[in-house]
Predict the structure.
Amino acid sequence: MQKLTELKKADTTQLSALGFSVSDLFSKKDVCSFDKEGYIFLPGFCDVHVHFREPGFSYKETIATGSRSAARGGYTAVCTMPNLNPVPDSKENLDIQLKLIEENAVVRVLPYGSITRGQRGEELSDMEGMSAFTVAFSDDGRGVQSEDMMRRAMKKAKALKKIIVAHCEDNSLLFGGYIHDGEYARTHGHKGISSASEYKQIERDLRLAEEVGCAYHVCHISTKESVELIRAAKKRGVDVTAETAPHYLVMDDADLQEEGRFKMNPPLRGKEDRLALIEGIQDGTIDMIATDHAPHSAEEKSRGLEKSAFGIVGLETAFPVLYTRLVKTGIISLETIIKCLAINPRKRFSIPFEGGASVWDLNAKYTVDPEEFLSMGKATPFTGEEVFGKCIRTVYGGKVVW
């Protein structure tokens, strides 16, 4: 990997406005040369919610392919969820993943430890043994169903000064659904996932976080009720942050097609939910945008809306989609998007920049083609969409990683 040469003609005004300078991201010996007008210099993005599938499911993605996909999307730090085999519920199991990260990652990869053993919700994981080696604790992919178990997890996390990161889903309110319980489901004969399955568990967890005094973060919120609950909790002083994903901000169930690339969990909700999420980004209720990058094999995503696996990829499309749909249209400022992608995640999870930066050609116009992705996963609802913004260089630790 080549060293950077001298940074020229890159617009750093947005970065400076956020209180960062070029020297924050590059050491003086590391340089980068760009002579083309219209290029913009940005801090390396940080995604606190990705699935790299290794160990256990390397036919979907690996640490190597996932981290390269992240670099191509301008990310220099990512946090990997624990739905793996073995589940990182002990230091012994976590060590398997840490070794793969050390050997194969091209950007910083920080693993989550699971909240419960095997993510089964029955017994706490060895949180204490993993604490020094994990970014936080999550059972993402599954909601913690027991209130007592979540309370115990929060107490342990508080003692360890760690964040509980929650996939909020009440299994008793799913009713066999697989897309949003909205107009599209009703008119096309699909079983719907109720909004209550998400926001009711968020409501419970916010109450527990307030009771325990634990730092709490909510994954991939998708409903208007979730936004309101988090907004009210912040006003009460609860130590809570929240994320949503690019697809929830720019799509709703009116955009659904009968293809697996439109199936994710939580699902694309209604228009009112999408608008509430945008408002949540605008007023700071929602702190960050994470991709929930969740690759699957082509066969697993070829079974239509009902039978395809939940999950889409997003690392290589996140910024171009957000920039095209929300920034260029004047809905959300570029500064806000950068805060949500790069600044706020690092602040909440105490993740340093470590020389992380990216350079973008905002004038580059192209069509999203999943066959060009570095990720092994190709399922995206943005296939064929025309976007602006191409990542020209990503730098991490003084090296060009894309």
